[in-house]
Write a structure and sequence with these properties.
This protein is α+β, with helices and mostly antiparallel strands and about 525 residues long. Helices cover about 55% and strands about 5% of the residues. It is rod-shaped, with a radius of gyration of 41 Å.
């Protein structure tokens, strides 16, 4: 059997074709330019991307620094700060710098998350050098940083309109109180009583010599058998300690105080570096009133029932008086209140004809009791001063007992009758307050705050804050002049062989708007 095969392909197609190729000069130049442009673009991308990463890292580092604010300080006093000593009591700004630098380097080299095909740093970013170029501390410019944050907090919680209405009310009361204080400084009850004693002594001598003819012309006045000369009672009260008279029975006066090492306002303090930053410019008059509202909300006073374990109990009194102990500060405030109340009460007595008639009648009885009718004029003046003093003692005791006293007295709010003046010692022993309208002790302290200097009050507030914070466990080295509220850093970064400088800053005032 014969097999026959047929080749269907032509003979010339059985073998592969031989090919040849070439590239033109134009194409070569084009590819060279393209590769050069690509390399330039790649480097530009590396620089731009690396710079973005470095900037993000620096800002993240600043956020990390300020995220480490003191929690206890914020919770109690609603202000932010970073402890620059990190709990050691020793100033350590290098720790803040290292935090910023580490965050920047981690952002540029995030552990292989952004790398080239061979695992190298795609951004070719590295830190060259850097420094902290500026920072602001709580203590700068008499605590302006503290005050700025306190004002911001009160604005957010109370609102500007509410604060303005409150300040307007206090401003009117302040004007009245300052006028009362001015008049009170001109009223010296002790001197008036001394003048009365001297006149009585001289009159007695003249009477013994028979030269007092006027006494024979006066009408006899009956003297009750149990009569007690109220001027003698007031004379004895003046010899006693003021706190013993006005502090309600059963209430003890705190014996706490601040040691010299706790006086922020007295020691040599650290200061910031560079241009300080406190936020937006503040309205001085309004800011002063807002900060006073902050003090009244955050500091305790004699009538407060919370934070009794604080190193200083009468904190508002300390801001006003500036003494070393609670007792001295309470005494300083009481004396100011007493002087103002004496003036207010004296003005009321002078304007009230009914009270003047009572003073005249009592003066005649006193003159008859001492057998010196010629002293009616001087006795009336002494009795008027003594009555105002006695009413003022009752006013202050009323305030310390938790009651209210109006800034300007009326007949309805007058507490001590002229017949009760001789029994004032017994009246002061009553620890209960009288129910009446007026202002509380805390509100009177608000008026006293308005008469003070803002810088002094700010530093004294910071005295209290430091003392309270140092009483907490682990806070023994707490210092407000190590509290950072604003930080500026400058970092030099190498990006693909080029060096760039990054200047970034952050602060709590900036973060709050």
């Amino acid at each position: 059997q014969t097999h026959i095969s047929y080749d269907i392909f032509p003979k010339e197609r059985r073998y592969p074709l031989k090919k040849s190729g070439s590239i033109t000069v134009f194409t070569s130049l084009f590819l060279a330019v393209f590769l050069l442009v690509f390399q330039v673009l790649l480097q530009s991308v590396q620089i731009a991307g690396g710079r973005v990463q470095a900037e993000a890292g620096v800002e993240e580092g600043l956020y990390s620094v300020f995220a480490g604010y003191d929690r206890e300080l914020l919770e109690r006093y609603h202000v932010f700060m970073v402890d620059g000593s990190y709990g050691t009591g020793v100033w350590k700004p290098e720790r803040m710098y290292r935090t910023v630098k580490n965050c920047m380097e981690e952002s540029c080299r995030p552990g292989g998350a952004v790398t080239g095909v061979r695992g190298e740093n795609l951004w070719k970013c590295s830190s060259v050098s850097g420094a902290i170029t500026a920072y602001t501390l709580m203590s700068d410019q008499h605590g302006r940083g503290y005050r700025a944050q306190a004002v911001d907090y009160m604005k957010e919680t109370l609102g500007i309109q509410g604060i303005q209405l409150l300040m307007e009310k206090y401003r009117q009361q302040k004007d009245i109180f300052e006028e009362q204080e001015k008049e009170g400084n001109e009223i010296d009850v002790k001197q008036t009583m001394d003048s009365y004693e001297q006149a009585k002594k001289e009159a007695a001598q003249n009477q013994d010599s028979g030269s007092d003819s006027e006494s024979q012309q006066r009408t006899e006045v009956s003297v009750p058998a149990d009569f007690v000369n109220p001027l003698d009672v007031i004379r004895q009260l003046q010899k006693k300690g003021i706190l013993a008279l006005v502090v309600p029975p059963g209430k003890e006066v705190s014996q706490k105080g601040l040691g010299k090492e706790e006086w922020f306002s007295k020691r040599e303090k650290l200061t910031g570096m560079g241009t300080p930053f406190y936020g937006t410019e503040e309205n001085t008059l309004l800011a002063k009133g807002i900060f006073q509202a902050y003090m009244m909300q955050h500091l305790t006073d004699y009538t407060s029932t919370e934070h009794i374990s604080d190193p200083l109990r009468y904190q508002l009194e300390y801001v006003i008086g500036g003494k070393t102990t609670d007792q001295e500060n309470l005494k300083a405030v009481v004396y100011r209140l007493l002087a103002a109340r004496e003036a207010a009460n004296m003005m009321y007595l002078l304007r009230d004809p009914t009270r003047q008639s009572e003073i005249h009648e009592m003066a005649l009885v006193i003159c008859a009791a001492i057998g010196l009718p010629a002293l009616e004029g001087i006795v009336s003046l002494a009795l008027q001063a003594a009555w105002a003093f006695g009413e003022s003692l009752m006013d202050v005791r009323q305030l310390l007992a938790g009651g209210k006293v109006p800034l300007v007295k009326t007949g309805a709010t007058w507490m001590v009758s002229i017949n009760q003046l001789a029994k004032l010692t017994e009246l002061l022993k009553n620890g209960k307050s009288v129910e009446q309208k007026g202002m509380t002790y805390h509100e009177y302290l608000g008026i006293l705050l308005m008469t003070g200097k803002t810088d002094t009050q700010t530093e004294r507030t910071m005295d209290v804050v430091e003392a309270v914070m140092r009483s907490l466990p682990g806070k023994e080295g707490f210092r407000l002049d190590q509290g950072v509220i604003y930080l500026e850093t400058e970092m030099e970064v190498s990006l693909a062989g080029n060096t760039f400088s990054l200047l970034r800053d952050y602060g709590y005032a900036m973060g709050n708007g």
